Amino acid sequence: MATQRILDFLATRRPAGPCLVVDLDVVSDNFHAFERALPSSKIYYAVKANPAPEILRLLAGLGSSFDTASVAEIEMAMDAGAPAERISFGNTIKKERDIARAFELGVRLFAVDCVEEVEKVSRAAPGAQVFCRVLTDGEGAEWPLSRKFGCVPAMAIDVLRHAHALGLDAYGVSFHVGSQQTDLSAWDKALGDAKAVFATLAEEGIVLRMVNMGGGFPTRYLKDVPTAQAYGEAIFGALSRHFGNRLPETIIEPGRGMVGNAGVIKSEVVLISRKADNDNVRWVYLDIGKFGGLAETMDEAIRYPIVTPHDGGEVAPCVLAGPTCDSADVMYEKTPYPLPLSLTIGDEVLIEGTGAYTTTYSAVAFNGFEPLRSYVI
């Protein structure tokens, strides 16, 4: 997944320390793939995946909209050239003053998942559009997002009914099937739940118009994943099954699927050791770990492809860990990672598929290590 442009950059620039390099050509290709896969859906890039200004400017220029989680992200998207009407405040947990600031900036689309949040929006952003997030089970996702956000469909009906009564525009529903979702059928049940909410409220004269189908589109790590086109066909089929010929407006929020495979982290082997003379599992310590940007290795959820200078030779299982003085800074131990026996201290390795959820997860100065450097080419 390291493009020739990335390899050439690393060879010529020789950046120090662990760093992420993102190839904008791959991001552009991914955006167009989503456009082709779901031509009738608006693309709202999930800024949290990677908010690098160069990425935001590229996507704004391509016509993307933006899913934001904070006022800071709204301002980043606007600084990159996105008008307020192409920005959604997609976090369901917002301070009332942040809702007011977003509204002041021109944002009119807000996520909610309870009546208490609806009341905040009605006070701080009168007349705004709201969509209610519905819980999903996240089955099939490597990074589930099922419990913290959303409410059951029956409650979503009450939430949107309340929004309508308070003078807000009850615009639609949203769901998120879980990040790195590899089950093509995952959207089917969620769209069925969305349709039930639409139907119940329509009987009361509240006509919802939009389904936000969230993110979840995967990037390739160690296993192959379906193409954007395959997701598009499965999602369109589910939409047609549940909504017939009266298809709602739809939004998708790719984050990982937009930038994950566009980035590669260059890292260095700091130490290789064993815990006992008869221990046949080596410990390999890199100069990057959970606190340096690889937080998604928590519970070994995301297993990144690692390229070494010795690939092709004999391998053996290793425990892979980061450099900090924290016992939690171990990436792969329950399922050791196969690495070449000839790997040695000082070797540079490439951690692929790291364009999403790395720089923003990197600690500011834990143990004195600087945040993960990022280069966008």
TrEMBL record:
Cofactor dependency: pyridoxal 5'-phosphate
Keywords of this entry: Lyase, Pyridoxal phosphate
Entry's EC annotation: 4.1.1.17
Pathway note: Amine and polyamine biosynthesis; putrescine biosynthesis via L-ornithine pathway; putrescine from L-ornithine: step 1/1
Domain (Orn/DAP/Arg decarboxylase 2 N-terminal) ranges: 27-259
Broad class of enzyme this protein falls into: lyase
Keyword flag Lyase: yes
Reactions catalysed: L-ornithine + H(+) = putrescine + CO2
UniProt family annotation: Belongs to the Orn/Lys/Arg decarboxylase class-II family.
PANTHER family (UniProt xref): ARGININE/DIAMINOPIMELATE/ORNITHINE DECARBOXYLASE (PTHR11482), ORNITHINE DECARBOXYLASE 1-RELATED (PTHR11482:SF6)
Protein's UniProt name: ornithine decarboxylase
Organism: Neoaquamicrobium sediminum
Organism placement in taxonomy: Bacteria, Pseudomonadati, Pseudomonadota, Alphaproteobacteria, Hyphomicrobiales
